[in-house]
Amino acid sequence: MSAETDAPIVTIRALGDHVGQEVTLQGWCYAKTGKGKLVFLQLRDGTGICQAVVFRGNVSDEDFEVAKAITQESSLIVRGVVKAEPRAPGVPGGYEVDVRGVETTGISDPYPIQPKEHGVEFLMQHRHLWLRSNRQWAAMRVRAVIVRAIRDWLDDHGYLNVDTPIITPAAAEGTTTLFEIDYHGEPAYLAQTGQLYNEANIFAFGKVYCFGPTFRAEKSKTRRHLQEFWMVEPEIAFCDLEQLMEVEEQFVSYIVQRCLAECAPELEVLERDTSFLQRVTPPFPRIHYDEAVAMINAAAARGDLVPGYPDPVPAIEWGDDFGSPHETYIAAQFEKPVFVHHYPTQVKAFYMEPEPGRPEVCRSVDLLAPEGYGEITGGSERMSDASKLIAAIEHHKLPMAPYEWYIDLRRYGSVVHSGFGLGVERTVAWVCGLDHVRETIAFPRMLTTMRP
RNA sequence: UCCUCGGUAGCUCAAUUGGCAGAGCAUCCGGCUGUUAACCGGACGGUUGUUGGUUCGAGUCCAUCCCGGGGAGCCA
After folding, report:
1. Which domains does chain A have, with CATH numbers?
2. Angstrom distance, A429 CA to B38 C1'
3. Which residue among A35, A110, A127, A435 is the one 20 to 30 A from A303 at the CA level?
4. C-beta of residue A149 within 8 angstroms of C-beta of residue A258
5. Number of helices and strands (H, E) in chain A?
6. What is the ipTM score, two decimals?
7. Sign of CA dihedral A96, A98, A99, A100
8. H helices of A228-288, where?
9. pLDDT in tens, A35-63
């Protein structure tokens, strides 16, 4: 670029702080168009997108030729004067750069992804490039804010981050399919939850959380499932089911409100209707499993359709777990996330505390997100009596020896305690209004896809 | 694993009853001072997912396998 100056390097996100100044931007050409002696560049730098206007009269002949030769996704350094222009396209938008000098640092080969519709298969095969597209960029930025909000809320509320092992000797809950690995000749499994270890940790630290990747080898192929996903699992000593729901609604509301406060440009790129999100404040509605079954069966009797699907709500027998259509129907009856509590003991994990006086239901709770995003948290009050826990393990026909340490927790100062897990990808999908969790993580691991 | 839909140019799609495989975008060349997925003119671009079958003739019909989308179950 001709006439090097000391114009400061700034980010597109902060352009508004530099109106009237000459600045340097470093980034990539997102799109380009031109008309004779004008070249319009959409420049992105990772923090946003802005239009850079190259007019032949404002740059050297050499720089104008450089600008004309820029291809989509070429890397470049641009020097120019920031102008407030309300109609300028961009993210956040409202400013454009009147270019005085331009230099390319890497001319791009013809770029596979065009600014138009593409099929999912093609985009997934080019995931390493797709991440540059503005909707993907926005979703990843929202994800990062959600992760930050999760950690901030927990750290600020007395929870200690104690991470749990990813390599585990056996199924924690004995239900789902796990990925098996060879642990020096002994079979081991990638963790599906850190919960049992969390329970050990609360007796040392009171309130804890683990936060990391989780693995499920199930042959699930839906918009809500990944083989590898991230989950945060808080666990709390001296906490019962009712107190747990209060924690969850505060926690989830904080996450959503942080996104609204910090991600306005991203949510706009995603064309998210934020009115649904603004309503996400405590308290959330709570319904008992009995009540949910009655609602579902009333809807089934009326022939109501599952929201978003052409099929009627299927009837349910008391004692069965909800199917996906049931969850969708229940969630659609509320404008906020809704707690469904006291599921039948027989469909839930062995360690959940039965309701006193009514042992056929347990002190469990799922949080269903609105708009069809499904279960985003699952939790319960844990069984705190050693003899009841031993009976439950026997009833589920699980081997006793691997659980001896877990039973110990009830032998040495047992307390009422509760915890839950929140799925990061489903939360991101919901906040962003995405219709598939594959777009909520940079490189999703799905049933048939692990490349790139 | 099951149900369902699909696979044609780099991408998005079209192709009548089984009858010459096409268009837009991208790319390359030329033109234009305000573009928003610009526009105008020209060029380049094909083993119709695989294998086999029916037929004078198959992108189109049949069988098979492969790959992908959506859904169920399971779950966060």
Report:
1. 12-106 (2.40.50.140), 128-285+334-440 (3.30.930.10)
2. 34
3. A435
4. yes
5. 13, 19
6. 0.87
7. negative
8. 241-262, 264-269, 275-278
9. 778 888 889 999 999 999 998 888 888 88
